[in-house]
Write a structure and sequence with these properties.
The N and C termini lie far apart (38 Å). The chain has a 5-stranded mixed sheet, with helices on one face. Strands 2-3 form a two-stranded antiparallel ribbon. The chain is of the alpha/beta class.
């Protein structure tokens, strides 16, 4: 059987310093709302006059807050004189698979774990923080951010509704069958589809 190709989706995000935290939180929660399989109590988040879904799970919310906070600190500390900086967040979803036995190799090397985590989907958020220099630039950016966020949320919904065949079957009774991680500035290469936040 040929291994499944892991899809990667790239979301381009342009935001100003006053909204970047809420925009990125909203996008992350929208992704997780559609890819988090345990039973949840849905909630919502208001961002730029748009209501986005929230996964009301304390562990996930803490992870999102931590990574978004790290991203905002990085963007603030690397801002250039022209008023812009870039950063990335990556979201990876895994399935737990039984590790194939390789004779005594695992026993001798101490790698005799019975399970391994295999990534089945990647989302990359490429965030550009822009600081408007004039009031006119600030108002133009603020007017554009709401529709752009709505377009990104719709793109996420379109993707998750269209691309389902790669999602592995749930084979465990654990609360969360698919582990996940959120990485600041992931180093993997992009070979996925790009979705422009302002395109």
């Amino acid at each position: 059987m040929e291994p499944r190709k892991r899809p990667e989706y790239v979301l381009e995000v342009l935001a100003d310093p006053t909204c970047v935290k809420d925009i990125v939180r909203g996008i992350l929660h929208t992704i997780f709302f559609h890819r988090y399989f345990p039973s949840i109590r849905p909630s919502s988040l208001e961002v730029l006059d748009l209501t986005l879904p929230v996964v009301a799970d304390p562990e996930l919310e803490t992870l999102i807050e931590t990574r978004v906070g790290q991203l905002v600190r990085q963007l603030s500390s690397t801002s250039s004189p022209s008023g812009g900086s870039r950063g990335e967040l990556g979201v990876r979803f895994f399935e737990k698979r039984r590790r194939k036995a390789s004779g005594l190799g695992g026993w001798l090397t101490g790698t005799g774990k019975s399970e391994e985590e295999v990534c089945w989907e990647v989302w990359k958020l490429k965030i550009t923080l822009t600081t408007p220099r004039t009031e006119t630039e600030r108002m133009t950016l603020l007017r554009a951010e709401g529709p752009a966020l709505q377009k990104t949320a719709r793109s996420i919904v379109r993707i998750v509704n269209r691309d389902k065949d790669h999602i592995p079957p749930i084979t465990t009774s654990e609360t969360n069958p698919f582990p996940y991680e959120i990485l600041l500035n992931p180093r993997a290469e992009y070979d996925g589809k790009t979705i422009g936040f302002f395109s």
